[in-house]
Structures are given as C-alpha cells and as structure tokens.
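We modelled the chain as a single entity of 340 amino acids. Its sequence is:
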Amino acid sequence: MKRIAIALAFILLSAFSVHAQQAPPLTLARTIPLPGVKGRFDHLAIDAASNQLFLAATGNHSVEVIDLKTGKVRQSITGLGKPHGLAWVAATGSLYVADGALGELRVYKGTPLALAGTIKLSDDADDVVYDEAHHLIFVGHGGSDAANPAKIAVVDVDNLSLAADLSVATHPEALDIDPQSERVFADIAESNEVVVIDAASKAITAHWKLTKAADNVPLAFDGGHKLLYLACRTPGTVIALDAATGKEVSSLPAADGADDLFYDPALGRVYVISGAGEVDAFQVDEAKTLHSLGVLRTAAGSKTALFVPAWNLLYLAVPGACATPAEIRVYSTAKTGMAQ
C-alpha cells in the first residue's frame, strides 16, 4: 500500500513538473518604440516581402509604416481622419486604408507611399479584407443613422470602382475570408449575427444568429477545422461556429472588451486581444472543442494586433500612456519564431 501511495505521489509530482515547465502560449521577443505617435491604435497589416508593418494610428490621424529590420518608423502617412482597417495587396504594391472620419477607402502606392485614389463610402469605414481570387476589397461602413445605413462595400481593385454595396442590419465590425469556398464572413455586432457573403456573386447568402453571447466584434476563420471563431463582449465569450452551418459548437469565457482575434494554424490556437490589456489563448482539439491556455497580461488600451503565421509572431499595438511612449510588442508563440 505504501509503495502504491509513493508511486501515485511520484506520478502527480511528475505531471505537475511537466505542466510547470510548459512554455507559455506567447513570450515577448522584441519591442519596437514609436516615439511621438499619440492616441489609440486600430488595425495592422504586413508587407512580408519588404519587412514592413503598417499600423493605423487612429488617434494620431496617420498610418505608421514601420521597418521591421531597423525597428524604426520609415514613413508616417498623414492627412487622415480616423484610419481603421488596412489591407496590403502585394501583387500591385498597394496599401488600402479605410478612414472612418473621411468615409473613404484610400489606396496608396509607390516609395514612399503616396495617395493614388479614393472610393467614397459613408461614415465609420472600418475593417477590410482582401479577396485575392477576385481582386476585391470588402469594407464595412455606415450604420450611424438613417442617412448612413450599414453596408459592406465591395471594391474592385483593378479599376478602383464600387462593384457592390450590400445592406446589413447594423454597423459591420470584423471581416474574414475562406478562400477555398470563396465566402466572406462579417460580424454584425449590434444585431448579434454573422453575415455570410459569396465573393463570386457579391451577394449575402446567410445570416447566422448567435445564442450564447452578444456584441460579437472580432472573428477569424480556421480552414483546418472548418470553424469560425468569434469573441463577444456581452458577456466576454469566445465561440467556435461550424463554418458551413453557423452552428455554435464550443464556447468559453474570455476577457471583456475583445477587439481582435487570430487563429494560429501551426499550433491550433486562438488568440483573443482585449482593450483591458489581456490576450486570452485557447487550444482547439480534434473534437473542435476550445480549451483555455491562460491569459497574457499586456497593457491597458492594447486592443489590436496582427498575427503573422509564417513567422509565428504576434504584433501587439500598445498606445502611449503618460510618460510611457507607444510601442509595438512582438510576441513569439511557443513554437520557435524569428523576431522580425
């Protein structure tokens, strides 16, 4: 009996030791200071070929172009109102910027980047996603009042024209795309639903109502598990939806105030970023069930980021506070990543 007790104690101690030695989901690899950049931040984009990171500095009314090799701001694109969504189109060397105050989608080209054209939208032009197969940019905009109804604009990047403007119930938040099925997903937060758009026909094909939580702001598509992940604010919850049917298959509590979300295909993880200064990490198993991996404490107001799967890195935008300057914190996943 004594031997059994000793053996059990050894097993429990070994299990605890292994758990304690597990690497955290994210570890700080590098910090890039942003001196002089004021106010809050929104979305980011990457030009991997040129090692450039783009940051929508909404409170600074600019887009900051950061050289990842030197860790310096290469260019500050000024003259903007409230830049929100960004998309880099590598094929044409173009940066698309959705400006919520100007109610425009702007395109910048060249070295340095210069304004090359605009598409007029309505107020609160927000998140964007690029459909490479059809050369289309999808942009959520509007929804503030009857004069500015909520829409998802479909912009043809080949001739910079408005190909469609799809009506939705309330302001669209995050967007993502499944390239294989050619579907675009959009969070319609105030209506507690996800809208599904067929990219080829430029038409809305489904409305998926949520039942487990409300105020769904960020989302991300997982092609391997065929899931769509949402983070809701009421209450703080992360939900996995079947990407074919919209059925809610798994959910767990998450931080309040979620504003960004990413899926890590190499490790099968979900990262939820919230303005409270937290990154919640979740594991997705083969049964499509979410499991919490813990919480990374960051900084208040750090609500947006960009995960680059090819580099195993998460770039977190941290606004300045009092005497502390703004910065980009570069986190590596548990899988070895190169700090670009």
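As a brief sanity check on the tokenised model: The radius of gyration is 21 Å. The CA atoms of residues 24 and 211 lie 32 Å apart.
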